[in-house]
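User: Teach me something about this protein's shape.
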Amino acid sequence: MKELVEVIAKALVENPDEVTVTEEADGDNVVVKLHVASSDMGKVIGKQGRIAKAIRSVVKAASSKDNKRVDVTIE
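Assistant: First, the predicted structure itself:
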């Protein structure tokens, strides 16, 4: 899931070098943390959080085959 979030985020931002993604697993729960430059934060979140919701939906669909719960946080 880490690679998926990283590819999506790098395609959205102006500073792809500043995108970092970390992944923390705890049993069936996985937390993916996305860090972007402050100037790119709006591009990743989108109007009313639409892009962030779309990223979370794609990750949720991709993780359903592994029977894991994946949460994406944008920091």
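Now, about its shape. Strands lie at 20-26, 29-35, 69-74. The longest helix spans residues 50-63. If you'd like, I can walk through any region in more detail.
User: That's plenty for now, thanks!
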